[in-house]
Amino acid sequence: MGNLLKVLTCTDLEQGPNFFLDFENAQPTESEKEIYNQVNVVLKDAEGILEDLQSYRGAGHEIREAIQHPADEKLQEKAWGAVVPLVGKLKKFYEFSQRLESALRGLLGALTSTPYSPTQHLEREQALAKQFAEILHFTLRFDELKMTNPAIQNDFSYYRRTLSRMRINNVPAEGENEVNNELANRMSLFYAEATPMLKTLSDATTKFVSENKNLPIENTTDCLSTMASVCRVMLETPEYRSRFTNEETVSFCLRVMVGVIILYDHVHPVGAFAKTSKIDMKGCIKVLKDQPPNSVEGLLNALRYTTKHLNDETTSKQIKSMLQ
Questions:
Q1: Among candidate residues 14, 11, 98, 89, the one with its CA nearest the CA of residue 54
Q2: If both were cysteines, with which of 25, 121, 125, 204 could 101 make a disulfide (CB 3.0 to 4.6 Å apart)?
Q3: Residues 6 or more apart from 295 whose CB is under 8 A from it?
Q4: Confidence band, pLDDT 50/70/90 cuts, at residue 1
Q5: Angstrom distance (rounded) from CA 184 to CA 205
Q6: 178-215 per-residue burial string, b: 16 or more CB within 10 A, e: under 16
Q7: pLDDT tens digits for 269-281?
Q8: β-strand 19-20 against 5-6: which pairing, if any?
């Protein structure tokens, strides 16, 4: 079982699986290595993407100056010169989302394949489960940063407007080779989403399910609900929580728990909030609310605004009021 640390015996299966996912130290077994290495190539760039996004300041000042003085060629050139390298960054972020989507699909294939159950997969393939968790952790961090940075959409809108004006006037556009029209359209759709990375993962998971018709949908949704349960149990049980050697692991688990809930809600026909859901939503929300308020507001907002079924009639009033 590799790095699996079994603790307690599961007396009531309804309570979810009782095992500890080693998010800190899990290492790939021989059978995991091929997928693990492919995903690792993508994940090693994740931190750099987040650093670039965190330091993204935008060209708001230059754009305002150019718009206020449309006849001043120097200001037009200055704004264009400021925006082109930023659009290069936005292109890099978008292309990374495509790589992340491909990595996620590889992991889903490995973690849902027969003959093992999702719980057996997560126990046997802890390194892949850890990578899946790292993708979700990255995704929520990326989207939190993007949501608080209006410069991204402003810069890209200005870039597209200026580019179309240049085309009309037959002005050669330096930098156009970087983002052609088709790519610009796709990037526009991506950045128009409040949480673009999460949307990419949700779509990829839904597509994975629809393309693998021979695989029961439960293999995928049970993998997600099991991960949500494991994260919740690890966070609310002192015996598990005391095993974390790094204080960052708590916020990591919280983000992963929220990420799998959102994916489950998008992929499962009735979603995460229905009575028949295999995710204990009240328990998960309680775990979030038990944290220092400032640290989880973004995650609570993700549940409020990026899930699909929260406002369905089948969602209990108690869950709705917990998220108000």
A1: 89
A2: 204
A3: 251
A4: very low
A5: 24
A6: ebeeeebeebeebbeeebbbbbbbbebbeebbeebeeb
A7: 899 998 889 999 9
A8: antiparallel
